[in-house]
Amino acid sequence: EPTFLLEGVEYNYEDGTPGLQGVSLGIERGKKVAFLGPNGAGKSTLFLHLNGILRPFRGRIFFQGKEVRYARKELARLRTKVGIVFQNPDRQVVIGHVWEDVSFGPMNLGLSPPEVEGRVEEALKVTGLWDLRDKAVHLLSYGQKKRVALAGILAMRPEVMILDEPTASLDPGQVHSLLELLECLHRQGIQIVLSTHDVDFAYAWADWVVIMHAGRVLAEGLPKEVFSDT
Ligand code: ADP
Ligand code: ADP
């Protein structure tokens, strides 16, 4: 059973801009999947459909074999299983200090304070933010803020993490740490789906690559096949 299955998904933004123009694809369980394509290709729009933030105008989306339903309760369940880390950390990082920020999500799950504390501690350690836990988020670097956003989602213990452009504005050393972090999450059984402009990164990391253009899937396949054609 694939993690996600999309059938003819179409979406237009309110101003009429076509976001997705008929996307059909499967994302196999456990696979590391990278989406590539120019800005405006529809990668973010697609990702926002994967945890029900956006609802298709046409077509259907299945998560773990069940069609996604948009009733409040079912959406809430979907979002505990599928976490999204947005491209711009300022969109996600709320306020205050690192610890406080990362605990926001798990607190909203209604967990007990010791459980929240345990999850936050683990998320901060895995993302290398432990030493920064008492810092004000607005004082952190862009890359550190991105890690705070990721830790916040991680602390919710999703089954799937969707990362929008995690490699954007990272230097090679930071890309290397990101790869290590993703491997660590993979070993924990968390499936990662991400978008990137970094072909070398996608080649090194992904099991499966999807190329998008103008709201459509242009090509998909194994990295070595897809990148040998382009
Ligand atoms: P094979 O017949 O060897 O499975 P494929 O090209 O179909 O050849 O798949 C090769 C690898 O890519 C396999 O590990 C497969 O699980 C993975 N794969 C195939 N399709 C997808 C997909 N839609 N999403 C993620 N991984 C996929
Ligand atoms: P990508 O993530 O691949 O850069 P997006 O999904 O952000 O692509 O964009 C797909 C299309 O939808 C683009 O034409 C983009 O300009 C448009 N778009 C994205 N967000 C909005 C929005 N909030 N309102 C109107 N158009 C949007």
Automatic annotation (TrEMBL):
Residues 4-230 form the ABC transporter domain. It is found in: Cell membrane. Signal peptide: none annotated. GO terms for molecular function: ATP binding; ATP hydrolysis activity; ATPase-coupled transmembrane transporter activity; cobalt ion transmembrane transporter activity. Keywords: ATP-binding, Cell membrane, Membrane, Nucleotide-binding, Translocase, Transport. GO terms for cellular component: ATP-binding cassette (ABC) transporter complex. It is a peripheral membrane protein. Its main location: membrane. Belongs to the ABC transporter superfamily. Probably part of an ABC transporter complex. Responsible for energy coupling to the transport system. This is ABC transporter ATP-binding protein. The lineage of its organism: Bacteria, Bacillati, Bacillota, Bacilli, Bacillales.
